[in-house]
Structures are given as structure tokens and as C-alpha cells.
Amino acid sequence: MENPGYSSGFDGLHHPSDDDDDEMVDIAGATLDFSTTDDVPPLSSGGYDEYSAGSSSSRAAGMNGSGPTKLVDPLEDPLPGVGTYEDFNTIDWVREKSKDRDRHREITNKSRESTVALLHSVSDAFSGWLLMLLVGLMAGSLAGGIDIAAHWMTDLKEGVCLIGFWFNHEHCCWTSNETTFQERDRCPQWKSWAELIAGTAQGPFAYIVNYLMYIFWALLFSFLAVTLVRAFAPYACGSGIPEIKTILSGFIIRGYLGKWTLIIKTITLVLAVSSGLSLGKEGPLVHVACCCANILCHLFTKYRKNEAKRREVLSAAAAVGVSVAFGAPIGGVLFSLEEVSYYFPLKTLWRSFFAALVAAFTLRSINPFGNSRLVLFYVEFHAPWHLLELAPFILLGIFGGLWGALFIKANIAWCRMRKTTRLGHYPVIEVLLVTAVTALIAFPNSYTRMSGAELISELFNDCSLLDSSQLCGYKQPVNTSETGVDNSLADRPAGAGLYTALWQLALALIFKMLITVITFGMKVPSGLFIPSMAVGAIAGRLLGVGMEQLAYYNHDWLIFRGWCSPGADCITPGLYAMVGAAACLGGVTRMTVSLVVIMFELTGGLEYIVPLMAATMTSKWVADAFGREGIYEAHIRLNGYPFLEPKEEFEHSSLAVDVMRPRRGDPALAVLTQDSMTIGEVETLVESTHYSGFPVVVSQESQRLVGFVLRRDLLISIDNARKRQDGIVSASLVVFTEHCPAQPPEAPPPLRLRGIVDLSPFTVTDHTPMDITVDIFRKLGLRQCLVTHNGRLLGIITKKDILKHMAQIANRDPDSILFN
């Protein structure tokens, strides 16, 4: 049984061996010391003081035993560590918001005194919008660079441009006058590797050369990606969204949003996407945008020194990430609100909207795809959908829900195996093996060989007369009178080309479903949006073509009669692909509103909102029937992050006294008394425990609560007093009250620490129902809550205690709630 004081495995002060990630990263024998530079701005560098805003002079005065506390500028704090947090610790939202209110009140009061102070007040109010502008510009620029580089390196696996190796395939052939419409991707300026090495583009030898070069480049890119992540920034792997959700809920993971992580994630994201692995760049772009925001926060004191304010900026940055990933600024804001953010005030909504707008504008200015669009797969469908088509759309929703639930269970099982077996000790070998298998199987099939975004673009495409794609391999109409309206074609019988494409797509579907399970969670940057959408889009296209052929050959059936006459363009297979993509992504992530908005911003298909809504809602319901967790929540639980899921209901009828510590048979609660302990006794208590804070009581006998003091603030204040204050020795009395008790004349001077005590800690009585306590923790973002009975201190409940209790109720191992 654990000791009963204020504790959590990650809420304690670090042991000397547990170096913070931004000071020393020791991975695979490569030790990099970043402590000499201000490289990774910790997410915990809030610099100022206690809950009730006693401050520099007040605390100094308090230590010297003179005068009561008064409100002074908390930014001029002579004790830089007080009020900040350790790594792997949870912030105190209430204290941070209180500090910000005090700071704002002081600036407002000063602004009435002089013009300079008024200008400072105006600049302080404007700083949030300026920060959003900078975040939007930086994230938009990086996203544009990532898109261009990934497009070029993906094409590099197949060949090179002779007029300039930096041109991708499409740009290389743009200026050529020798391309034909049927073979628009063939031009003399672009040479495949077989043409360069073997001198021929046709025949089995040329095919083998291209095959081997494809595998070589894939292995090279993935090897570089995993090696860079291992050596320089271990936090740059994965999607990043589970960790960002946890950070936004108040947890601190130093270095996760630092400069090294940003640089390495940007480079390795391009390499990972280009290697042909079944992953996307959309999730990692959210991480990249949040890194930009965290780094830029250090330009503004208001955000640098307040953890709660910084998390408002990070919420907006998550919106920016989706905005640049999909070219969907409104969808990005809704994604941040629905999926990522823990605390999202109205002010953050407006700023997110502005930042997403700036980022989308920046990306549009860069024009990475050369089509004046924000995304690669903008489509325009000509035929409206019919009410009877809702049945196949709902069928796609059911498929998406089943696939989502299956994927989450399979992926979590694989990731748990990676953590608990020797597989996790060899990340480089694992990445290379998965890349080799992916490249070997993907190359023969044109639909798995192309990048995920290109595949989705191909599947969303609506066939026109001039399409040379295999998916448009229909038997051509005898005369043009059979074409429909608006340059769209009437439904036609499938030709040999289409049947070949359907077989290849069916094989691609099976391959994508299996390989994505293994790929997501490897030690390279890996997003899940594009692979999930690809699975859904393939399934949707197959169903769409099936429906189209059914309608063509059976237009006299009752269900088709009246709206699908011969020669009409009734069924649009591309629309089914779009609905399937939304359904599968919804099944995996459990997004609803934001997903529908992202999809119609992504494709421009405004009139198809109802099919998208129907499929997305169905997929969520079906997936929820197998488990309420989305993929990100499942990974949060797998990693043991201290995250209280706001969507999860607490339905047990336990009381606070059942969850608090100490429990029966445990040692007594570790407490400090207000005026009867010496510095030596306090230091002994602190050293003999690993708790992050201690309740302050009137005396050991009365146990009447006075307040709560954090371990970190206590240690810093005692250390500072020993250095700066004369006469402070181990026998000096530590006093947490305004007035010192009477002491003999020969006694050393007391150390007054009232300034660091939180005099209004949150308390509940021992009979408070746990569902109310959990709600208090969620809505106020508490780290701990004290339990009293008739005013006397009984025990303490921490966030970790609640998570352990919820794990026990769900028949899970309570010790899994430990940051790993």
C-alpha cells in the first residue's frame, strides 16, 4: 500500500537520476547535452508566486519577519523557481488563473496612472492576437514546405528529373511540349531509374530495377527517419495527438513541444511519408503547430510565465495544425474544440479561428500542390444524391464503425506487445522490416504504390469523358447523346480496365487494413487520418461501382424506377468513396461534427453534408457499441498518462472517504504544522517522502486545516533563506502564520513562509459522492483535493487516486495509471 500523503508517481519531485528530457537525452548510446542552451523551453517555466498573489517584496518581507503581505508585481519575483512545476507534473489551473487575474488587475490599475502604462496595457491586450498571427504564419510555412518536400521525395522513389533534380514528376513534365493527353505523366525530361541504369523503360529487367530502387529509397528514408528520432528527439515519434491532449489537460512533459522536437519532427515527417509507409502527416502536423506555438509563447511574458494561458494558445495551435493539414480552417477549430482541448473559453475560439485563417492563407500563398487549392483532393460531383442512397451510405457507416473498433483493439494489442516484449528494444529493425514488407507488397499494385493522398484523390475522382484513369475504364457510349448534363457521363457498363482496377483495389483494401495496424505507433512520425480515410475510400468506391452497375443493369427495379432512367447519371462512385472515408475516420477517432466539416471543406462537397452526417453518426454508434474509447484515448490509457476523460461517465456510488488516502492501516497523513516545526524537521519530512505537497495544520493534535504548500516551493524557499538570510539554521522555527509565536531570546530567527501557502485549498467532506468529486476535478482542473470531517483534516485525494479508482471499477490494473 502506498504512503498516504499528497503523492502520485509522476507528481513527485524527480530523483537526481531522472534527468529532464530537455537537459539530457540518452538514446542508443548517443548522449546529447542540451542544458547549455535554452533549447527546449519547458512547458513549466511559469515564474510567479502563490495562489493569493503575495509576491516578490511580500515574500522577501515575510521571510525576514517584517510586515504583512501585499499585492506587488508577481513578474518581478526574486525566487525564480517558486510557483513553477516539475516535469511529469500536473499544473494547478485554479492557481494559474488566479495569478493571471491578479496580473491583469494590476496592469489595469497602473494604466490609469501614465501614458506609458496605458500603452503597456494595450500591448498586453494585443499580444494574444499577435501571437496567433505568428503561429499561423510559422505553421503554414512549415506545412507548405513539408507538402512540397514530401511530394518530391515520394516521386524520387520512381525516377528523377533531368532538367533539375529538385522538380517532382508533375512539375518536371509541366513545361514539356512532348506529352500526350493519354500519357500526360510521360515526358523525356523525367527518367525512371530503369531508364537511367538499364537504358530501357520496358521489359522484365526494367521492372526489377524499378522495383529494387523503390525498395532502396523506401528503406533509406525510413532508416533516416527512425535514426534521427532516436538520436535527437525521442518525442518526435508517433502522432503526438494523445500527448497534446494530455498536455492540454494540464500535464507537463518537458521537451515534448521544444525546438529539437520541432526540427526533427518536421524533417522526419517528410522522410516517413516519402518512404511509402501506411501513415499520414495530418496528426503530426498538429504536433508541429503546437511546437511552434510553445516556442513563440516565450516571446510574450504573459504566456511564458503562465501555464494555463499557454494552454489556451496550444488549443488554438491544434486548430492551426488541422487547418494546414486539410486546408480546413473551420474544421480545425471544431477539431480542437471537440477532440483535443480540455479548456476552451470563447476567447480561445475567436483566436483559434484567426490563427487557422492566417495559416490557411499562408499555405494558399505557398500553393504546394500547384492547383490553387489548399488540398490535393478537391472534387466536384455533378449528380445530386437520392434519398434511397442513404441505405448504402449507412452501410458504409456500419463498415467504418466495425473497422474503427477492430483497428483500435488490434493496434493497442500490437503496441502493448511492443512495450512488453523484446520487440520494443529494436525500433530501427522494426521500422526497416515494416518498410521492407510494405515496399515489397505495395510496388506491384499501382493503388498501394501511390501515396495515400494521391490514392484518395483518385478514389474521390468523378469520371469524365477525358479521364484516362483505370477506375474510369468503362465501355464508351456509342454516341455523345448518352452523356449526361454538365460534362458528366451517364452510367455505363464496366469495361475490362475497371474490373482490373476493382481487383487491385480489393487487394489494396486488405493490405491497408493489415499494415496500418502495425505501422501506427512505430518510432517514426505517423498520422492516422490518411490511412483511415484510404481504407474507407477504397471500400466506398467498391460499393459505389457495385451500386452503379446494379442500377445500370436493373434500372426497372422498384428502388431505381423514377430516378434512375437509362442514360441518366444516377450513381456517383466518388461520392461513396468520400462517405466511406468519413465513416472510417469517424470509427477510428470518434469525431463527428468536426469530421463532417473537415470533409466538406476538404472536397468542396457542400450538398453532401447529409450523407456524410448519416455515415459519421452511424460509424460512431457502431464503434461505441464495442468500446467508447477512440484511438487517441486508447493510446493515452496505454501510456498511463494522467488524463481524466471528460466524455467518460462516473457511475459508481462510492464516497470520497473510500478513495482518499490514508486508508485504514496506512501510516498517518504527512502534514506540516503552522508554527511548531523547525527547518531540520521540515527537511527530514520532505526527504523521507516523495509527495509533491503537504497540508498545513494548526497542530498535530487538532488537525485543523490551515492551507496547502507545494514541496517545490518549500524547498526553494528554505534553500534561498539559508543563502540570503542571516541566522537561519536547522533549529530555526518555520512559521506559516502572520504572527510568530513567542520564542526564548537565544533562539535563532524564525523562517516565515506564509507567502507560499495556498490558504484556500479545495476541500470536500468525507461523505461527498465520488461522481461530484470527479466532476470537480474535471471542471476545475485540480491536482489534489483535501478531505475533512467537521473541519478536521482526514486525508487527501489526488488526480492519480481518482484514475486508479476508475481503473479498479473498470476491472483494469490500477497500477497502469503511471506515466510510462
From TrEMBL:
Bias (Low complexity) ranges: 44-67
SMART domains recorded: CBS (SM00116)
Membrane topology: Multi-pass membrane protein
Disordered: annotated segments: 1-68
Lineage top rank: taxon: Eukaryota
Gene3D superfamilies: 3.10.580.20, 3.90.1280.20, Clc chloride channel
Short name of any one Pfam family annotated for the protein: Voltage_CLC
Alphabetized InterPro entries for the sequence: CBS_dom, CBS_dom_sf, Cl-channel_core, ClC
Keywords: CBS domain, Chloride, Endosome, Ion transport, Membrane, Transmembrane, Transmembrane helix, Transport
MF annotations from Gene Ontology: voltage-gated chloride channel activity
Entry's localization field: Endosome membrane; Membrane
PROSITE patterns in the record: CBS
GO cellular component, one term: plasma membrane
Record has Iron as a keyword: no
Domain (CBS): residue spans on this chain: 660-724, 756-814
Transmembrane segments: 129-150, 214-236, 257-279, 285-301, 313-337, 387-408, 428-447, 501-522, 528-547
Family in the record: Belongs to the chloride channel (TC 2.A.49) family.
Name assigned to this protein: Chloride channel protein
Organism of origin: Poecilia latipinna
